[in-house]
Amino acid sequence: MKCKYCHQANTIKKGKRNNLQRYYCKDCKGYFQNNYSYKAYNSKTNELIKNLLKEGCGIRSISRIINISTKTVLSRMLKVSNQIKRPYFQRLGCKFEVYEIWSFIGNKDNVTWITYAIERETKGVIDFFVGRKTKETIRPLINKVLLLEPNRVYTDRLNIYPSLIPKVIHKRFQYCTNIIERNNLTLRTHIKRLSRRTICFSKSKAYLEAHLRIYFLG
Question: Care to name a GO molecular-function term for this sequence (predicted)?
Answer without folding.
Answer: DNA binding
